[in-house]
Batch of 2 targets.
Target 1
Amino acid sequence: MPSWAGDAMALGCALAWAVAVLSFRRLDKLPPTAVNLFKNAIATVLLLVTMAVLGMAPDAARSATDWASLVLSGVLGLAVADTLFLAGLRRIDASVAAVADCAYSPTVVVLSTLFLREPLAAGLIVGGPLVVVGLLVVSHRRRDDTKPIDRAGLALVVAGVVTTAIGVVIAKPALDRSDLLEATTIRLASGSIALFLFETLRGRRAEVLSLFRPQPAWRPALVATFFGTYVSMILWLGGMKYGSASRAALLNQMGAIFVLVLSRFAGEVVPLRRWIGAAIAVSGVAVILLA
């Protein structure tokens, strides 16, 4: 893979996730566990079909440690983190969620430095703070804004973002030794199975399976699943596999900026301060890419 492949995948993941977020917000009347299981299960099937078409199979020679890392990463990142994120997204809007999303890259950078021994390059040191500052400006809410921030919803999203970061850092060493599609499929399948079993043990099987019945919500759910889980998951892990975890995490943060742009195209009024924040974040990404 060329040196820029990881960066391109990380940015592509951010764009795919932005498309998915706008679709996920149309599912705010459904239980977050139902939405999470639906997207994970459908994306797992899509990945299994993709692997079959390409003649790929699970790596039987993988070490027990790598299997455990991928499975644990899938459970944390897809069963726990995504459920927390979707639960919070029901209670706050996309701009507030962008504030919570700022916790992702610093968490990955800190964990990667401590546990993966990734160096803090100059581009990350200078560009990283610019990305975070830009996102904070984009997501700033003035006192005269009509809709107050739901602190519980914000806390849920922050918890989901931080748990996602923990999950991907756990998977990074095993991911470096694995095929991208196969490792992605293992994580998704592990998260789906864990979520289904947990909700079944809680006596909530009917609720967690509620979205699998044909209904109008399928249209936004399938769009969100395709872009937010199938496409973005491959690109997300690809950015981690073919680049550093810290660098990919910072580039992934551009998803909040893409949400801003797509929201404007959808007819929403975007305040000037958010465009200013977008410019700051884009400059940070430029520093990361060029340094």
Target 2
Amino acid sequence: MNIKNYIAGEYEAGYEYKYFSPTFINKTFTWDDPQINTLLEDATRALGELNAFTMIVPNIDIFIQMHITKEANTSSKIEGTKTEIDDVIVSKDQINPEKRDDWQEVRNYIDAMNKALEELEHIPISNRLIRQIHGILLNSVRGAYKQPGEFRVSQNWIGGATLATANFVPPHHKLVPDLMSDLEKFIHNDEIFVPHLIKCAIAHYQFETIHPFLDGNGRIGRLLITLYLVSNKLLNKPALYLSDFIERNKGLYYELLTTVRTQNNLGSWIKFFLTAVIETAKNGVLTFQNILNLKHDMDLIIVEFGKKSKNAKKLIDFLYQKPIIAITDIVEPLNISKQTAYQLIKEFVNKNILIEVTGFQRNKLFSFQRYLAIYNQSKSIS
């Protein structure tokens, strides 16, 4: 079906409100818009370049965990959490009490992503997997009473105080199982000929329109983008996350999702999605280039530690995974005494690798700020 003939769905009457009933999407989509072709080519190239970097960066999995941490924090921030990446990478007892609920939500996102990546080695993306990671996402946080791990059995809405004043009312809950089944079939249907990035864009729109859960739909929908790219081998590692782009262009993101429903304009949404992939992939390449440069500099400094270089190397590798630490954090992982840990961190401070960030006499925290700065960089839409 040509996307210019696409009908997103229709509004149907509920009790004193109208809900949106989307059409099924398990079909072939085509288009006549040359701009989509150009963006698709650019996005595919950018994704390939990013994927190449994941294969040349040594010990890539160490750095992927920081990518996941940044994504978890940014995706959660879109939904209203107030943490920064510096907050998320410390332990719960090291963060201000007023931020601990937000901290837990972000940590749940990290756990959900890691569990999903683990499960993808055995099972495909499925409604079963989606429900499983949703249960992890809402475990023991706000929304824990909203059926974690289960598709909703009541009506939800977006914006407004009531159903009658809502900005958008997703489909009736009785429609959710069939809609989600159609979405799952679309994701795995090898007999329809739709490029993966276009398919991913359409699948994300449809998931957010179905809004199958009472809470957490935005985070799960964004998480599924990365899972789709990994499961279909467009990425060897989960190195691309669109939440940063979406957060910076949040108004346009929601506007274009709405435009699909109200004007059947699927093309504009696809263009936005492909633009997000292009910019995010390019930023990802820059991130990995900066990591390689930093790693080169650190390797040269480690040589200066002489007989202590073995422990210094172990500490650097640990900092790539946890760039804000207390002295006690490294004793067990590095298998060293507390006194050795103290001296090692002192030397790292003297060489300006670590910076003490609390100003306390006790319970000091030390930050690998040059590394953190790499993940705090972002660009606006071009």
